[in-house]
Amino acid sequence: MTSAGADPTGILAAFAAGLAFDAIPAPVLRRAEDLMLDWFGSTLAGKGARPVESLVRFHTQMGPSDGPSEVLVHRTLSSPLAAAMANAAASHFAEQDDVHNGSVFHPATVVFPPALAVAQALGRSGAALLTAVVAGYDVGIRVGEFLGRSHYRTFHTTGTAGSIAAAAAVGRLLGLDAAQMRHAFGSAGTQAAGLWEFLRDAADSKQLHTAHAAGTGLTAAYLAADGFTGARHILDGPQGMAAGMSSDSDPSRLTDGLGTRWALAETSFKFHASCRHTHPAADALQRVMHAHRLAAGDIARVTARVHQSAIDVLGPVIDPQTVHQAKFSMGTVLGLIAVHGHAGLAEFDAHYRAAPVVAFRDKVRMQLDPEVDAAYPARWIGQVEVETVDGRRLSARVDEPKGDPGNTLSRPELEDKAVRLAAYGGGATEAEMRGVIAAIWSLADAPLVPRLLAP
Amino acid sequence: MTSAGADPTGILAAFAAGLAFDAIPAPVLRRAEDLMLDWFGSTLAGKGARPVESLVRFHTQMGPSDGPSEVLVHRTLSSPLAAAMANAAASHFAEQDDVHNGSVFHPATVVFPPALAVAQALGRSGAALLTAVVAGYDVGIRVGEFLGRSHYRTFHTTGTAGSIAAAAAVGRLLGLDAAQMRHAFGSAGTQAAGLWEFLRDAADSKQLHTAHAAGTGLTAAYLAADGFTGARHILDGPQGMAAGMSSDSDPSRLTDGLGTRWALAETSFKFHASCRHTHPAADALQRVMHAHRLAAGDIARVTARVHQSAIDVLGPVIDPQTVHQAKFSMGTVLGLIAVHGHAGLAEFDAHYRAAPVVAFRDKVRMQLDPEVDAAYPARWIGQVEVETVDGRRLSARVDEPKGDPGNTLSRPELEDKAVRLAAYGGGATEAEMRGVIAAIWSLADAPLVPRLLAP
Question: I need a surface site. Which of A26, A125, A294, B24 has the fewest CB within 10 A?
């Protein structure tokens, strides 16, 4: 069935079902808490955004008007399914949630919403929630790696691998055994979906994809607990996910270092408020401008030397018409960096179509770089060449962008980012956020996952 | 963007948005009523089936415990989303619902559940419901034809094209304009999913696929009514459905005969209680046995000459372990025909592993036939060669299986089938079904779509 010889899907499902809190190293647990806070801020940053509010409205109207699980942006309660979908819809909008480089997968937005909603519904402990989250990350990331670059060319891996990640996290909270977890994977994978086509039109599908992944994964796990069966080889079978949606899948990635390599700890925080594919070049541009004390007006031309996926995802965005689309415009991101020093949520809102930014944008081009491309997706190298108005040719390189595990954010930096994200959409005051931060930093000892905002 | 030159997605969306009741020929409306009754019976036949009850339980628990829309197998009420998903889960289980040959697509199970649930929720007329159903069928069938045979090799077209079909039907009931309908298609298509992998394990995913299609399509349409946008070229764009999930898509099929060719009227009713790929051979075997007055014991060997998709779908099922899997076993179906004269729900339940059926099953093989394969999927030709115990070589051919448009079921035959299906799972008594039948036959004149079973 697979080139890995053994049974990677079975091994992965057994890992997720059997993962014990005590087996997870303390630094991984601390990183899981970091990621939870980062996710929480990202969720509140989605409050008020039109597509987010559409989805939250729909799922809360179609679900019950009361229940055990928080809908964070509205501070209301509903069923775990409706809450998970609403929170997942909210948490990927600001493009400030985490990313795992090797899998090009955003784990938080598909793992935390179903895990939190179900932990609240079942009255689980903080330790159980953290364990489930580690299971979700480590499964989802490996599925993303397995599906490979060919998959990502057409499919939004966060949507597709996200269904399996959500199923793993919820399945762990439900206490599924290995066989049931495998059924949950089967039911999640056969619902996995998400196409990049929407980017060309700046359409709202990204929020739909994360909600869909959270909802289908949660559904799959609950069904498995009730005896509902799924395909045994949903990932690598002859009519499974890879057969249908990938041409370079690698089954060995599904079990790579299970239980010793903690993929969750490899996850990066976002520093710029844009598509991750723009970050390496943004960091490199900051470096060259800082080193040579350049202002935007000093620069005649920028060449970002990038990997192919950056061209695939960002290339179609020539003249962004919305803030969201601008986050996928390499020129706009570099323009905000050059003109305003930052590409944060506030800079995007205020300046993404301002004349100086647009003028800079049109000086930027992307070029495929063989070395950068070969390193990707394991490493996201940033390399820019700058031609100055006075004829100098300068360049800079960043081997690990800000927020990556080797260049990570400290807890004070994470707290600051979360407080700003919460304030951005009016989702929570700083005082409220201090309470949430304290709750998350002490989650491992909490006998019960608390409500975080709802009364 | 497409080889069809124009904008087939836009044309199809405009058709669905603009379809008027008065533009639909009376025979097409009558056929839509026929299909509704056939679907209704199939839904009740799912009552009590383990995977159906799992899904119904899940969606009714996650949804509100009251609402405007009927959950038919439980006679309860919930939100349109929960009811649509529950009813879609139920209606494809017995494998007695309709099929469109050319698209290898089962329209009823993904169109009627969301259409009925939303018509009840919005208080629409019977004419509005029938109009929406015609829109759903004609869109879904064309999307299935567009995605082609390569898609069907790995993907369950009823699950994938089904999302768009459901969006079209619900979008018509919501009164979406052409632009909104196109957004609904975009949101539905980017959630489209369903892989055949589950068949190898006789897993429960088929019920999940129809529920998923109904739910995602309904969601897409409601979101579009609320201003949520989707990809403009979700079907034929460079990162759309065909790009990701087909290698032989044909955009011209999306608009083929729109408004003059009514694809709904091309839909076939099922006569045998098995996968449609078994039906042509089953009819041909009945013919040859009848013509030569053969009993099962007279037959030494049967060769079913089939199209490639029959081998793809049925080939992996060698030794079926469940009734459901047996419906995908050519040998079992022909065995039931040979031994019991019928392959109905009751025959499957009682005899699918009985020794005489298993003995006959092992005499059956499938062989790819170039002429049968070339005619497929437009025509499903049945051709069998029989070798008798006494050494005769006989054969028979059926050009249009029972239930196809040219060999269709009469209203009395449809009523009889529906009453039997309703009785099968204890879903409704004959008296109750007579009331439902009367309601459906007079639907075109009903100012309000009535409740059909719930108190």
Answer: A26
